[in-house]
Amino acid sequence: MIQLRDCLPVRGLALAGTVAALLLSGGALADQAARDAQDKAAAETVDTSRFKEEPPYKIGVSAGYLSNSWVVFALQHIRWEASKHPEVEEVIVTDAAFNPAKQVSDIEDLLRQDIDLLLYWPVDDAAIADVLQRAVDAGVPTINTGGGFTDSPGTIANAYISQWSLGEDVARRLMEDLDGKGKIIAMLPIAGTTAAVDQLDALKTVLKEYPEVELLTAEYGDWNRAKAKQITENLLQRYPRIDGVFSPAGQMSIGVAEAFEEAGRLDEVTMSPGDEYNGWLKWVAEHRQGGAVTFPTRAGQVAVQKGLKILKGEPVTRGTAVKDPFISPENVDAHVDMEAPDDWWASELPPEFLPER
Question: What pLDDT score does 27 carry?
């Protein structure tokens, strides 16, 4: 989702100005304005004729990090989709290992290898804005792959997952399970990221409809199971009553649930839906609670499809939202793999493209 930053892309100034003005007139109105503005920007048609190239194509993938299992599965979706197109001769992957400066260097190196298309997921959006713009200026289209929507001029298109919609769905299902009453905590991804900002905004917007629900605190577990567990252990000492947990990310949800269980307080809490992280799905299958609002790893596949259209000079929309359907606790058995490790993702990848277990 679009964020108001200190330095905004020129193309987004009018859009951000509209949203900023609405902030003065009330939170709910501003939230709706932000959603409407993003939807409008995502639906914008991009003229890609300047990027038209004759095959074969070389795809560069700049990974901000590859240590996260979701990212590994998204990358495999990229490779799977590329394998379906004989015009793609090579996929080159770099790993910045959470280092923004290295990601800039990685992209520069990919450009020196004469890539035709750049897919990326960032460590820090602002840190790579300049090098993405240089890629576009050099005739290499760029696609933000997974995560939230960006309207930066250095990003030609997005294969994105609406963090606001995901957060809203998770929040509403949690409110239903709590019957609209109680004290809750929120476990969010990395502070300052689009995912964390939008999920919290969505939660707070939904909470305006439920005056009998109190948000005790919002914490940041960095998509990390161990960190989320440690944070929750501290929260359990601080708060004698916690009725519910808002946690859209399954890696963190399982850590939170483990902390409650070890403290002997699991029976008192209602967990929100997580995502299709296999460890979380196993927990849902055992406890028949929560379910999952999916965070589809096939975003990588959608990015390749969108990129090939651009290389053929076909117009595309600036954003393609990858849908995130709900898996109910009653239907989780069709998605969980009890034999696979926790650090695994439900997907439609064929066996030859699945990561090693």
Answer: 45
